[in-house]
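subagent[fold] <- orchestrator: predict structure for attached chain, return tokens only, no commentary.
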Amino acid sequence: MLEWHNPCEVYNMKRAFSAITLVVPLLCLWVVAGALSGVQAQNKETKPNLSKYRSPKYYPKDPFTTLPAPMPATVEPVAAQPQKTPVSIQPANTTKRAVRWQVEPSVREGERLRMERNLKQETVAGYRVQIYSGTRREAANSALLDFSERFPEAKVYMVYEPPYFKVRAGNFYQRLDAQPLYQQIVSKYIGAFIVPDRIPKR
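subagent[fold] -> orchestrator:
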């Protein structure tokens, strides 16, 4: 059997329910705000006072007031450092050892002959055409023989300047005098060029 409700009672119940729904959130906000204010107050109380460690600052009320003059800096005298006597360190083993170079007998003989030839004949500054330069004696000999066969009228020499063997041709007093021979052999010996050298005196 259905019960009958008075409309006024139903209306009052709806108003009471809506009021409760508005009051409960407000109460929650109030509780949260109180808790936050309590935490902030606690943080302010626990924050240490560091003002005594800070350097004083001057803020004059009158903008035309001059600031106090800074204190003069004090210079502390530096104590004189004792002079250190130099210490000489000697090596443990001071035995002198002679270094000996091993040179082939053929090289020694060639150097001796070249020195004797230079002493016997007088030489002057001149120019020659160099056709070979390398560390292999066999290659230098082959270049010398090949040049002698191609140009039998030109004089050719082999010079040893350690560690290189050099093959040079001609005896010219001026650089221009060596140009004709250079033009003849440059196509056959690509690395040929004119170099200053000592040549026999006329």
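orchestrator: received. Logging for downstream: The chain is about 40% helix and 15% strand. The first helix runs from residue 7 to 46.
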